Amino acid sequence: MSDLRKVSLLQTLRSAAPYGVPEPVLLTQVRLAGHRDLTLPQLQLELRGLADEGLALRLPGSLGGDRWRITDLGDSKLTEAGV
User: Fold this and answer.
1) At CB < 8 A and 24+ separation, what contacts does 43-52 make?
2) 49: Cβ contacts below 8 Å, ≥ 6 apart
3) Which of 34, 39, 58, 72 has the most CB atoms around it within 10 Å of its CB?
4) Has this prediction a pTM greater than 0.85?
């Protein structure tokens, strides 16, 4: 995952904290941020990578699917990067 895409994902997650963002909404927001080639399977893979790094947290859902939110570590990483 590119650093720019990672920052876009984390910024979008930050904007919806603490409630999280459903995957389809997150996909739309990241595409609007310029990553138009991103697919839902790619997004899900990248979100799992962020979760493995401790930067994002999956909130299992039912009707609307899974939601994701930024963790304190993810927020700290954005702050350190000056974002």
Assistant:
1) 46/1, 46/5, 46/6, 46/9, 47/9, 47/23, 49/1, 50/6, 50/9, 50/10, 50/74
2) 1
3) 58
4) yes
